[in-house]
Amino acid sequence: MLLTAAARLGDEAYGAAIRLEIEKTTGRRCSIGALYTTLERLEQKALIETRMGEATAQRGGRAKRMVRVTAKGIRAASEFYDGVIRVTRGVRWEPS
């Protein structure tokens, strides 16, 4: 989900925006601590790259940590979603 949210946001992807995108699309709360822990893990695996953006007055002079999905991250997300589609093909998600 995080890779998808970051890809959807493009050049505007940073922690708080990714969190809002996930919450908006899933209807579920997303802890900012869990989000940043996951960002660090994804960066260690080279699935994303981060950089510090410009400091802004709206943020009290703090800079945003901008996120970009790498080519490796795009491949990993694509393979994951393709796998989900294959494994769920023919499954009926209706209560019995």
Automatic annotation (TrEMBL):
Pfam families: PadR. Coiled coil: none annotated. InterPro entries: Tscrpt_reg_PadR_N (IPR005149), WH-like_DNA-bd_sf (IPR036388), WH_DNA-bd_sf (IPR036390). Residues 11-77 form the Transcription regulator PadR N-terminal domain. It comes from the Bacteria. This is Transcriptional regulator, PadR family.
